[in-house]
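User: Hi! I'm working on a homework problem where we have to compare a predicted structure to a textbook description. Could you give me the structure for the chain below?
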Amino acid sequence: MPRWVYLLALALLTAAGVALRAIWLRHPMRYDESWTFLFYVLPRKLSAALVYSAPNNHILHTVLVALASWLAGDGPVALRMPAFLAGVALIPAAGHLATVLSHRRLAGLVAAAFVACSSILVDYSVNARGYTLFCLSAVILAERTVRICRDARPAGPWICWIVIAALGLLNIPVMVYPMIVLAAVLLLGAFLGPGGRPARGLVLRRTVAVLVASAVLGFLLYLPVLRATGLVATEDDPAARASPIVVYGSGLYGMVANPIIGSRPFAEAAARLPGVTVEALAEWARDTSWPWWVLAGGGLVAAGAVGVRRRRAFYLLPLVVAVVLPGLALAQRIVPFARLWLFALPLLLAVSSCGLAELGYRIRPGWLRGAGAAAILLAVAAASMDPVWRLCQPDRRVLGECALVDARAIVTDALELADGQTGLAWDYELSSWAPLAYYEVILSRESRHFIPYLQDRCRRVLVVVPKVQSLQDVLEHRPRLAAAYGTVYLWRRYRSADVYLSLRGL
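Assistant: Happy to help. Predicted structure tokens:
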């Protein structure tokens, strides 16, 4: 395949990926991204962005979101732009990884097509979190790993490996997962390679050295984070006005002692691990059909066969992932969120693409190979039509969608009553409160009115009840509301919630 054809096709696939992602850029804000904005971006202080009060704060990504907010405002599009750009860059990056790995441009195009129409990767590309940046770091690290497997002597790829790994750690601490997976690939490559004991010794020493150096550099980058402790939102901040929750944060506590990521008994972690694995695979398979799975799975099988026969360590990545990731979870005695394994998806899709390319180029006689390559591309294009069609449906459920997709409409209507005497109440044990708080901050700034959180001076209150909850549930969680206000009347109905109105003293 001529280089210009490859580059043109890769550009077209990237453009298609941009279009699929742009459809969902204005989707209602979700819980985690709203939380990130309220507590780490809205205070307009670098110290707030660096506070690791919860694993929700992906430091490097949060700093980029703060920069995007400063440049382009606080709308969903601006806040999601760093994740969006990383998600778009992931398409050519995965294609480049597959091309470098297999020396076949066909593999690069197949990998780019897989990543461009992956539903889960599309969703995280329009979610203001650091997961697409996490995946992009892993893909770049994998490309460096491939080059090191071929020749471990040059120092350049090793140094680049350290820098990318450290920046990935600054974005999200679980960057340690792809680091260990790819270090295992390096060691496996040294064992399978032809260099003998001297080459294996060199790879072993340098692998240990880069892991240590990455950890040290990552620690140095985290020094400002470890020192950033204290109040994230004060009573004078809009975030505190929108929510009664005041967050104190400590970088060291958030990283090593936060109960959200705490260790579990070994038996509990082992029992829940299969469920996490199934959940991760189900997320990866969202909006796909059986032809897509046949192609992706067949490519992995073919790549595995090539890896065993030709002693290519990176082609055995699925086996390494299947062993290392559960092993790390059991060693830490934690039950990871399924999204923490997302980095493995573009890597596995790149390996699968290499397997499909190997099948296409094994066709005999040689003059039919072009037809075989074209058949592979057509099959992938046909299998991708179903996820592309699903991604274009306006009523599609977006991954991680908040329970309150009508948050903006609710706040807009509530602002009609914004007289300083009307409060807004919700059950903040549910994920619906953060989008409400986000839109209250944004829309009240535009209208120059605001809805105070339920306070004693409020003469009436609007009670938001998501469809997943009942009014009685909300009142049970809000005894102050039930005691201070009288009969609750239905005010307005929305697709995802009902809003009730109550007057004081009735």
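For your comparison, note the following. Confidence is low (pLDDT under 50) at residues 230-249. Strands lie at 230-231, 248-249, 422-425, 460-466, 485-493, 497-504. Good luck with the assignment!
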